[in-house]
Amino acid sequence: MKNLMITSALVCAAATGATAQEITYGGLLANYGTYSLDDFDADLSLFAGDIGVVVGSFDFWIEGVQGNLDLEDDSDDHYSDVLTLGAGASFGDGFRIDVSSTDLSIDLGFFDTDIGIDELGAAYDNGTYFGRLSYAKLSEDADGYLDGIWGLHAGYAFSDAAEVSLSVHSVDGDADDYIDPIYILSGSYDAGLWDIEMNGLFTEIDSYDLSLLTLGGTYDFTNEWSAYGAYTYGSIEDDDANLLRVGAAYTLNDTYKFFADYTYGDADGLDDHLDGFSVGVSMDFGDKPTSYETTADRLTNVVKSVMAFDY
Hints:
With 311 residues, the protein is mostly beta strands. 8% of the residues lie in helices and 65% in strands. The protein contains two helices and 16 strands. Strands 1-2-3-4-5-6-7-8-9-10-11-12-13-14-15-16 form a 16-stranded antiparallel beta barrel. A hairpin with a 3-residue loop joins strand 10 and strand 11. The chain is globular. The two termini are 22 Å apart.
């Protein structure tokens, strides 16, 4: 909750105090959903916010995601909390270096952790293609098992409307004997009236193949009304899972959007399927440049459709 309050306050302050020319990207989202599985009910509330501000050749950003899970007949708090603060400096013709610090806190009852990630990145972006090399160091002492994560991210923009990128993340430490490099593939295309986005993660952990792939898109019926859909496929070795979300959104103006959606999910080993319904509101100040994405961004983007904070 502390990170939620910090993120909300700073994003709102930045959005209120900065001029439109200074804000390069950002947004806010609040979402509440109720879900049921095998006669078991749960409520999930989400808050996500980010803002990027440019001051001369320097840029600064803050972003966070707060999720609270309320389980039926369980009075304990279950949450996931991510907060990132970062700064970058651009120089030359397309070069940029950045530093960021991310705090990840998770408490699901059966599992809890608090991890800090400090990242240094160097990138080149000429508007058509880009590359970024990074190292994210874990602040927790893991006795050499997992010291950090190396990252290499490259992308190509076919036009202002279409781009694709691939990042590879390799574990630094003894855990690399059990965790293969993580590949994250993403792409998007905006045709004006409709758009589509893809995010996929592929790796092998302790000889188990793990993959997660999401395809999502929107279609604008009018300037105000639009439909949305996303399909997510997950696989761990021979066990598969499917998640489908369909919904509609009403755009009040260039910034504010109200939305509602229905979620259906099934997985091998489950006797019943997941049903869910959520409503929310979002503010949009523009998309974060793909070449700015940190390791935390790449990993978070893969699950944003599953967690329903992709509006």
